[in-house]
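RECORD TYPE: inverse folding
INPUT: structure tokens
STRUCTURE:
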């Protein structure tokens, strides 16, 4: 699954230790594009997040994972490509909004093939406490 398939939850994991349902958005679209394409990209991200929120608030997540009753929810964007400073700012605002709904939001950037010096993925969490 990927960002372009807006009506599908890309990936889910359950952390019994942390008592969280982790919903993952796979963003496989480059941010190295024109300003208009960047706007379309962020709109897709927003639509996908809104669809995930409907999945949560409708109770469908509990229908699919009844063992997660009482668990918190995390939405994570798995970015295939580096994000821009502007996108980081947008993600920070999204995190603030979702935190008010008791949902943790974060992202991580997959290591790039040409990043020989980095063996670990760049992790950027917008989680605030």
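DESIGNED SEQUENCE:
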């Amino acid at each position: 699954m990927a960002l372009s398939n807006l009506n599908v939850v890309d990936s889910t994991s359950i952390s019994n230790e942390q008592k969280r349902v982790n919903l993952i958005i796979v963003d496989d679209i480059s941010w190295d594009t024109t300003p208009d394409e960047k706007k379309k990209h962020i709109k897709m991200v927003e639509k996908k997040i809104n669809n995930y929120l409907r999945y949560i608030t409708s109770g469908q997540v509990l229908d699919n994972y009844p063992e997660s009753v009482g668990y918190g929810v995390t939405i994570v964007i798995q970015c295939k490509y580096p994000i821009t400073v502007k996108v980081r700012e947008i993600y920070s605002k999204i995190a603030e909004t979702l935190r008010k709904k008791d949902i943790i939001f974060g992202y991580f950037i997959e290591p790039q093939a040409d990043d020989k010096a980095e063996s670990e993925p760049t992790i950027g969490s917008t989680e605030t406490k």
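NOTES: Residues 42 and 87 are 8 Å apart (CA to CA).
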